[in-house]
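Hi again,

Forgot to attach this to my earlier email, sorry! This is the prediction with pyroglutamic acid bound. I've pasted everything inline since the attachment limit keeps bouncing my files.
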Amino acid sequence: MKILFTGFEPFGNYKENSSWAVAEKVAACGVCNANVMARRLPVSFAGVAKALRDAVEECSPDVIVMLGQSANIDYVKLERIAINMMDSAKPDNDGYIPDEVPIFTDGAAALFTNTDIKDLRRVVEELGIPAKVSNSAGLYVCNRTYYEALRLCNERPGMKALFVHLPLYEGQPSATEDQPTMLLDDMLKAVWGITTNICQRRK
Ligand code: PCA
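Structure tokens for the complex follow:
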């Protein structure tokens, strides 16, 4: 079994990205006796698809668990859908601000995860960590990345992919006092639990 974890480089006002902090740690812990790899992706609408494809090419994963930071949540947000659109009020790390641009003009309007997402929410909740299933990963770089991953699943039958948005972690530099946070350890446990469950179901 091969597992690819992805997180993102810092963006916006943040000096760190909680998604990469967790991806790196969970990969170091190991999961399911699998061959585990972690890759840090650019917050770039233009560059992220190639970065993800290169990582998938290199790793040939059975399972991809993608992580992204979402600053306004206090729960683990399991993403069901990627939408064929890029739109943002804020620039990506290349300074690009898309205005309702389709990802692929001939692509499906939306693509859905091929994991059992409600069951994965239960797994996280049973660990005592709040979790929700979400029907929108936004229209920023995370959604762009997820759309690419779910397209790759169609090209590579058997490969499973899930995107998870995570809060800021407690003590994260540049998090302001009014922003919700979660213990890094709890996010680690949640991602570990999610990945273990996806792997067990694949066996
Ligand atoms: N979160 C952003 C992009 C990178 C990240 O960690 C998003 O939600 O789109």
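Residues 8, 11, 17, 19, 43, 68-70, 138, 140-142 surround pyroglutamic acid (CB under 6 Å). The helical segments are 18-29, 48-59, 117-126, 141-155, 184-202.

That should be everything now.

G.
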